[in-house]
Amino acid sequence: MTLPSQQVLAFDFGTRRIGIATGQPITATTLALTPILARDGTPDWPALDKTVKEWQPSILVVGIPLNMDGTISEMSRRARRFANRIQDRYQLPCYLIDERLSTAEAKEIHFSQGGGTNFRKESVDGIAAQIILESWFGSTLRIPSHTRLEDL
After folding, report:
1. 93, part of any domain
2. How far out from the chain centre does Cα 74 lie?
3. Sheet containing 8-12: which strands, arranged edge to edge?
4. Domain range for 93
5. 107 falls within a domain
6. H or E stretch including 42?
């Protein structure tokens, strides 16, 4: 269970961009950060290192995009590998959470705020990461990143 003073970073894994949000569990407030670029799912490590150093999280959370029927996909596997990599790289506990429909919800929020449809220019990845983090704060389930996806 998280402690009130902890800072949490959440990630919406993508092959071109990785959305990031930060938050604190005591208030369950979140803030979308600028997404970092990725090349075929490999993050811009210096940019990610800078974000982790700046926010000094004590916990990491990665959304796992399960299929609507709860089955795993190649993207689910890639997001879990990313979670394992950042856990090992930063030596911080990393948790997984089901993120079905977070991008669709992020687009709805984006449109309600007057955003356009060019998501390459107006990324919703940070909003999706915020939704992932809010969902994690609202859940009592803590799934370590090394958990087999078949066991979710």
Report:
1. yes
2. 17
3. 42-43, 29-39, 17-24, 8-12, 59-64, 94-98, 143-144
4. 9-17+80-97
5. no
6. strand 42-43
The structure's pTM equals 0.82
Quote the pLDDT of residue 151: 65
pLDDT computed for residue 23 by the predictor: 95
Q: What is the pLDDT of residues 29-49, one digit of tens each?
A: 999 999 999 999 999 999 999
Q: How many domains does the chain fold into?
A: 1
- Residue 64: in which H helix or E strand, if any? strand 59-64
Instruction: State which amino acid sits at residue 9.
Output: L
* Type of residue at 45: W
**Residue 51 exposed, middle or buried by CB count within 10 Å (0-12, 13-18, 19+):** buried
| Residue reference for tokens 């670029």 | 37
Among 8, 1, 19, smallest CA distance to 65 is for 19
The dihedrals phi and psi of 3, each to the nearest 5 degrees, come to -100, 155
In a domain, 88, yes or no: yes
Give the other-Cβ count within 10 Å of 4's Cβ: 8
65: three-class secondary structure by DSSP: coil
